[in-house]
Amino acid sequence: MFRYLINKSDERPLKDVPVYISIILILAILCQIYWSSAHPLQRVTIKALPEPPSQLESQLLGLGDSIAISKLFMLWLQAFDNQPGVSVPFKRLDYGRVIIWLERILALDPKSQYPLLAAARVYGEVADEGKKRQMLEFIYQQFPADPNRRWPSMIHAIYVAKHRIEDYPLALKFAHAIAQQVTVTDIPHWVKQMEIYVLEDMGEIEGAKILIGGLLESGAITDAHELQFLQNRLNSLEPENTQ
Amino acid sequence: MTLQPILTIARFTLLESIKNRMFILVLLGVVSLFGLTLFIGELAVTETIQIQNAMTGMVLRLFAVFIICIFVITSTIREFNDKGFELVISLPVGRYAYLAGKMAGFCLFSIFIVFIVCIPLAFIGNTSQLVLWCFSLICELWILTALCLLCLVTFKNITSALFVVLAFYLLARTISTIQLIGSSPILETTNLSHKVITMVIDAIAFLLPALDQFSKTEWLVYGGGGSSEYLFIVGQTVIYITLLFTAACFDLHRKNF
Fold it and tell me: What is the interface pTM, i.e. ipTM, of the complex?
């Protein structure tokens, strides 16, 4: 393929090259090899996460293409913990700055779910409870801007709150936000019913029953299968409450 | 009568691209860059297809722009240096016919480039939005082709022409953002200098095509492109190509050879 690109008939044979040029070329290559070997590798240094550029500066960097630069930023941020010669644990990252980066990435591409998912399931998976809560708060703050698109990240946040932090009131707050703000109907039924499940897990059976009863009587549920499911759920809660 | 020389020059321009093996080079470049963007997409935890679409679109668009600019500039300069242009104008062919023929040949070459560039995107994107994106990229390359010809006629130098074209492209894609930066400064100020600078930026923006509205990554990732985008692209392309081509003809007719 490369011979096809280079026209061989234009080249002279190797013996036409003067000897001194060949000698100097070989010496130069050997000098370069010696030079590289004489300079040891630099010590590994861990770089701190820098401040992100402003939204307008980011758009400039992307030549007006905010979505492409947003994706690039997200991949860069995700890979930031893998620096040359060292892997930086997430707990050493400045989470305040991570949140600023995630906010910037979301501002550049508001329809993307990547920053919120990364907040919940990547940066929220550290052992440090304070950092987990920072990420959950970030997701909660961003949710109202587009609840119909961002509900999956809130579900992840509920999971982290319930099973990682074991903060049921926090999980209930998130579930309540989903129930109040998500208006689309083409989502799984259990999404808007998360509040009921969290109440049950908290032992708030009466609260769960009131919620289910309210949903059934409001007429907001129109799907026959969902109605049946909720009714069955309500019936199953009765024996639990009397125990 | 005038059409025949234009078509002949266009045909030989396209033949030159074939003999320079430009299509193979473009194909190799597209395959390599597509592989790179697939690799980048695999690094993603989620939205893999979206990231691949976005990265592929951005990288291949820049590649197409770079290839067309390099080819138009070097090909035309070579013709000037080989006195091919002077041979053509010594015949009963108008200077504008030469430019029109070159323009037509390069525009046809642009269409082939965009078809090759869009092959990888066809596997990972929405077809209707891809058609819009391809159409927009073709128009973007046509505008740059006309600009390259104008710069060549004006400067007759590869470095100067390439520098001006790339600077124009960067400015045309970022001028909206620059205007926003200028209109919302960090410190509120009523200095005369700030007002003058803002006015100059606005004046430049009036003269530049809105290239940030062309080949938008948003169409590939989220869709949403429609007939209004087609109308805008066609309108902007027609106006700007007419402007650049007329300027090139104006300059060419004033040159002594």
Answer: 0.77
